[in-house]
Write a structure and sequence with these properties.
alpha+beta, two-stranded antiparallel sheet, 4 helices, 2 strands
């Protein structure tokens, strides 16, 4: 999965004619921060910093223009939650010899 993401970033950067490696681009994105601000009246405001100029160029190349995140606890209309499902129980066959040794 990480390799596919890396390749997708690399392809987007090439298409945007930005001469930077995917690794450098992802490193530049570390300057972008999500900050939750407690307004003191029980509400919280979520904000995203702009990051460096290089990070802004990477975001543009990736087609990410909206840096306004939804409020905490309110994921917004485009947010999809995949429920955490426990793995299906494994079907284990115990040989007759093992059954005899167990009992």
């Amino acid at each position: 999965m990480a390799h596919l993401l890396h390749r997708a970033v690399e392809n987007k950067l090439k298409a945007a004619r930005i001469d930077v490696s995917a690794t450098s681009a992802l490193t530049a994105l570390k300057s972008v921060r999500v900050v939750d601000i407690d307004l003191g009246n029980g509400t919280t405001k979520r904000s995203v910093t702009r990051g460096s100029q290089r990070a802004a160029a990477v975001l543009r190349a990736l087609g990410i223009a909206n840096l306004d995140p939804p409020a905490p606890g309110n994921p917004g209309p485009d947010h999809h939650v995949v429920p955490n499902r426990p793995p299906a129980p494994s079907k284990i066959k115990v040989s007759q010899a093992k059954k005899e040794n167990m009992g």
